[in-house]
Amino acid sequence: MLLVFDGPDKAGKSTLIESLERNDLVYHSTRPFKPYSDYSIYIKAQYETIASFSKFFIGNHLILDRFLLSEYCYSQLTRDEKVNKDSSYIFDIDKQISDNAVLIYVTANSETIKKRIVKAKEKEITIDDVDTLLNAYYKYLKMTKIPYMIIDTTYKTIKDCNEEILSFLHIHDINL
Hints:
Elements lengths: L1 E5 L6 H7 L5 E4 L8 H17 L8 E4 L2 H11 L2 H5 L2 H10 L3 E7 L2 H11 L9 H14 L4 E5 L5 H14 L5
Parallel strand pairs: 1-3, 1-4, 2-3, 4-5
Helix pairs in contact: 2-5, 3-5, 3-7
């Protein structure tokens, strides 16, 4: 089973994954910041490989720290129009893995993410990008075939977030 943690920078994805204290394989995908079209060929191959292996994780879990959602959303900020139009493969893969994946969308309100970006001295995303990025994430969530939940870390403790995640996974018969 693919357990996909995705969301904007500084929302708390990696923190929540680490706090679950799992022995499952965790794969951290990089943000899609390369502005040239060859990168989409690379990323497509990477995601297709992960999707093809997903069926072999029955009884085990592959936890992904970023996946299709970030590819779609960050490309809205970083790529030209032609490359964005060529990203239909994202939804092809989304459909392919929808029976063997769940998505945990980790977010926070715009102001919280902006404060975290400033505090972390983030260089690849600016506070001016946050609202556009959040809108892209919600647009994708409306189109995905993957079962998902939304965790807003703005006012919740890590423990509360983990309890919500474990409850969601239990509903989908996934035991950690």
